[in-house]
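Weekly modeling sync, notes
Attendees: S.R. (lead), two postdocs, one rotation student

Agenda item 3: backlog of single-chain predictions. S.R. asked that every request posted to the team notebook include the full sequence so nobody has to chase files. The rotation student volunteered to paste the first one in as an example of the format we agreed on. Action items at the bottom.

Example entry:
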Amino acid sequence: MTTQSNYYLINIMLKDYSHPEKIILVGYLTIILIGTLFLTLPIATSGSVNISFIDALFTSTSAVCVTGLIVTDTQFAFSPFGKLIILFLLQLGGLGYMTISTALMVLINKKLSGFERYASQDEFQRFTIKDIKSFVIKIIIFTLTSELIGAILLFPKMNALFNDFWKSLWFSIFHSVSAFCNAGFSIFSQNLIVFKEDVYVNIVIALMIIIGGFGFIALGSIHRYVKTRGKDGLSVHTKIVGIVTLCLIIIPFILFIFIERNNALQNLSLIDKLATSFFQIVTPRTAGFNTLNISGLQLPTLFLFMILMFIGGSPGGTAGGVKTTTIFTVMYSMFEKIRGKNNVNIFFKRISDIVILKSFFIFSLSIIVIFFGVFLLLLSESKSFFSIMFEVFSAYGTVGLSFGSGTGNNYSLSGDFTNLGKIIIIIIMFTGRVGIMTAANAFILKTRKETVKYPKTKIIVG
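Predicted structure, as returned to the notebook:
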């Protein structure tokens, strides 16, 4: 994975140089399988705990897909080595396989072939490949710097909790990386419930989640805007990401306080209510941390969470979901069509038909995958409909929030599933992370010539 020979090996296996989507899929699968093998080693588990292959595969997939759903208690089931493997996997998953591999290619070989640049472009969803090398390096530097700052900010609170320098440092680094990568993995048995009333930790973790999920492309546009003092205007993409992100923070924040005022927030002070509400409406957008018992929340709140999990973060970032720009394009284009507009215009620019088509494709196919996943799990598992639907939305959005185990153990509802149920969730997590994006590129961005052109027909719909 880290040398040019690995690229050639993958290319020979695929025997197809024209589909970088396959390279991305094989890359993620390779990392997941390697992670699985490491997690099955005796050195990766704690004490007498035995991790089955399916559970190791589930954990590795959840880490690489930055989901956070767990089928074992991460704090006690894995040794320090096992937790280090999980940290490494979620870091790789957060940055993206092609980001890491391209960065290594830059550092090792100092140059990229045309094929490698094209494959990397596909992962980033960028429109040009001119500055791909500097872009990747900036991503790595920005990510590591942000995670370092996050760890430094979390350290005082961790040290106050443990009064142990090295343990506090480890917990700070792990949760900083997990937050920035929108992974939701925690090495506390009860996630971050221990910091339920800690305003400082709530805000730090929430900001890390927002920055990581905002998208490197949008962050780069903002950086150029600030650097040139406004001479380089913000791109339309960045404006849309900013508007949608603010809406997905402010509106759910108000709704959460209103719905949970006499329930989860009832016994908290005003400051704690605000901090807890802010944290808990940020984390469903693919982070998966929780400071409250999810199963104890009101049904309208849980439905709101499913909407946020489905939307997720923004393109080019560490978050999952169908993405903020996809939802905006679908909703705004429908609004413009209802108004009788032939073209969809925003900020004095026209959104291309291919972008609109791709957005509807991703949206529709995502709904189909979720419904099909729910149906299969209802057949294989004896759990309530709503809890299964919540788990599927969480898996597809690579979030990690869950109703939790019904047996009182500190893991997700998936931990109670049969092996078949776990495999279904694994496939959903993987599809949510890379499947729809690669499918969209493979089936929409590539056109085929038609040898026969049939006459048009009319179909009555609606």
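Discussion: group reviewed the output briefly. The chain is about 65% helix and 0% strand.
Action items: rotation student to repeat for the remaining queue; S.R. to check formatting next week.
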